[in-house]
């Protein structure tokens, strides 16, 4: 596929419509159809460590979708996703996430065959087939259809196109009605329809259960009565490992729907932990920064939402982005499991709180956008313009001039995001709020515990 080698053709033809960064083209995932737009080559910026504010956008790209403009033609590569899976039962101590008491297994006792992974004389892993066989029934492919309006080339006005894309997902839990699948927000954002392909090639329609743009996480729900008994016997929930115990140099295995051709496997090592990665939200131009795992296991378009595994077959990360530049190889990134788990739980269980129990923070705020942040050397977030006397915010110590950068475990770039999170919280809930406060000419970070008041 020579067209993927052109240094001016970024992201291998991914969509820029799903919150992805530095994506300037649309093309079908198999490289055979679709349109593409190009831009001049630019020198990439290296990743930065945690060293304050003023971070620039780096050439990281969200890899959720192999994306193409389709007009009645089928998307090549999506009809055949998996080889046959035997569906052997795991000996792992898997605990299902059910009802209101959701929890994800943190310990596992894999079969002896997974403990004794073959190594070469130099200590390199030579065979991960046992791990793949164990985990593949927990991985799915996700196909999305989005309707996009673009200016017509033939007449004045707009013309509608159906855009099809592919990503990956991880089966994480079920309740009495639904099977829940974790993926990336940019995989499903803007989609009109979703289709999930399981390990036996069976496909079902799915719905978005919840999304969190700040961490690029989403949960997709599939009705259990839509899945036939034969498929249910061949799929299972994944086991999550503790990403806090990961060390640089440990072996990593990535599974995902690369280029929309179906599940594929790559191996490598953990290259870095807590790597601060900044991408641009294409919907509003804001910067989103998260601490991710870095790996040199190949992460390709369509891998987003797939699993990054350790040698026990545990999910230690959810593949999300890579550094896209022809002179750079082996820089893929995944959301750590310990970051993803609490957010996934919330996305499954949260419900909008109405009436007298609605939460009230007690501030008025102004968005500190990317341009304002760069112009005035301020942290990006929400500038506290006013604090209501006696409110939970005031009692916790928020003052005018503070800039809120995180709220309830989420990175914050706008007041709208805070309000969106507040709708799922109740009066009396305690939330962690991270602020930056100007002191002696620089911003100093601190974290406050805010007891939310009752909405008036």
Structure write-up:
This protein is mostly beta strands and 456 residues long. The chain has two domains: 1-350, Thrombin, subunit H; 355-454, Pdz3 Domain (Roll). It is built from eight helices and 22 strands. The strands form four sheets. Strands 9-10-11-14-13-12 form a six-stranded antiparallel barrel. Strands 3-4-5-8-7-6 form a six-stranded antiparallel barrel. Strands 16, 17, 18, 19, 20 and 21 form a six-stranded antiparallel sheet that branches. The longest helix has 13 residues, at 337-349. Residues 1-60 and 62-116 have low confidence and may be disordered.
How far apart are the termini? 60 Å
Helix share, percent: 10-25%
Find the count of extended strands (DSSP E, 2+ residues). Answer: 22
Structural class: mainly beta
User: What about the largest sheet?
Assistant: 6 strands, antiparallel, barrel
Query: Taking Cα atoms only, what radius of gyration do you get, to the nearest Å?
Result: 22 Å
Domains, number: 2
Q: Estimate the mean pLDDT confidence.
A: 75
What pattern of helices and strands is seen along the backbone?
EEHHEEEHEEEHEEEEEEHEEHEHEEHEEE
List keywords for this structure.
456 residues, mainly beta, Thrombin, subunit H, Pdz3 Domain, six-stranded antiparallel barrel
Secondary structure blueprint with pairings:
Layout: E1 60-62, E2 66-70, H1 112-115, H2 129-135, E3 139-151, E4 158-174, E5 178-183, H3 185-188, E6 193-197, E7 203-212, E8 217-223, H4 229-232, E9 251-256, E10 264-280, E11 287-295, E12 307-309, E13 315-323, E14 332-336, H5 337-349, E15 359-360, E16 363-368, H6 370-376, E17 381-387, H7 392-396, E18 403-407, E19 410-411, H8 415-422, E20 430-439, E21 442-451, E22 453-454
Antiparallel strand pairs: 1-13, 2-4, 3-4, 3-6, 4-5, 5-8, 6-7, 7-8, 9-10, 9-12, 10-11, 11-14, 12-13, 13-14, 15-22, 16-17, 17-18, 18-19, 18-20, 20-21
């Amino acid at each position: 596929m020579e067209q993927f080698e052109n240094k001016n053709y970024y992201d291998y033809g991914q969509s820029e419509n799903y919150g992805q960064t530095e994506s300037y083209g649309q093309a079908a995932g198999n490289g055979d159809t679709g349109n593409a737009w190009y831009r001049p080559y630019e020198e990439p910026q290296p990743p930065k460590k945690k060293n304050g504010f003023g971070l620039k956008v780096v050439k990281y790209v969200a890899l959720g979708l192999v994306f193409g403009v389709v007009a009645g033609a089928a998307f090549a590569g999506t009809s055949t996703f998996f080889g046959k899976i035997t569906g052997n039962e795991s000996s792992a101590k898997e605990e299902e996430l059910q009802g209101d008491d959701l929890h994800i297994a943190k310990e596992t006792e894999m079969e002896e065959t997974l403990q004794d992974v073959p190594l070469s004389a130099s200590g390199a892993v030579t065979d991960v087939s046992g791990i793949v066989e164990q985990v593949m029934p927990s991985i799915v492919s996700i196909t999305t259809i989005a309707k996009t309006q673009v200016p017509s080339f033939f007449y004045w006005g707009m013309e509608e196109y159906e855009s099809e894309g592919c990503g990956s997902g991880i089966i994480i839990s079920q309740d009495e009605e639904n099977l829940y699948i974790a993926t990336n927000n940019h995989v499903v954002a803007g989609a009109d329809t979703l289709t999930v392909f399981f390990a036996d090639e069976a496909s079902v329609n799915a719905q978005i259960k919840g999304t969190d743009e700040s961490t690029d996480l989403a949960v997709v729900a599939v009705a259990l009565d839509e899945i036939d008994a034969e498929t249910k016997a061949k799929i299972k929930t994944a086991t999550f490992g503790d990403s806090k115990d990961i060390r640089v140099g440990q072996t990593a295995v990535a599974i995902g729907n690369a280029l929309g051709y179906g599940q594929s496997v790559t191996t490598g090592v953990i290259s870095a932990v807590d790597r601060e990665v900044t991408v641009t939200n294409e919907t509003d131009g804001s910067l989103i920064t998260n601490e991710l795992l870095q790996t040199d296991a190949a992460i390709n378009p369509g891998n987003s939402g797939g699993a990054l595994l350790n040698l026990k077959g545990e999910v230690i990360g959810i593949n999300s982005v890579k550094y896209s530049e022809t002179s750079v190889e082996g820089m893929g990134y995944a959301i750590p499991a310990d970051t993803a788990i609490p957010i996934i739980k919330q996305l499954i269980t949260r419900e909008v709180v109405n009436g007298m129990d609605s939460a009230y923070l007690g501030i008025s705020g102004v968005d500190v956008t990317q341009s304002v942040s760069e112009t005035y050397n301020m942290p990006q977030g929400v500038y506290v313009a006013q604090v209501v006397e006696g409110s939970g915010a005031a009692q916790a110590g928020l003052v005018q001039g503070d800039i809120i950068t995180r709220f309830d475990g989420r990175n914050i770039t706008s007041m709208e995001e805070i309000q969106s999170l507040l709708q799922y919280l109740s009066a009396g809930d305690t939330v962690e709020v991270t602020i930056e406060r100007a002191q002696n000419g620089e911003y100093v970070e601190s974290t406050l515990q805010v007891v939310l008041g009752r909405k008036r």
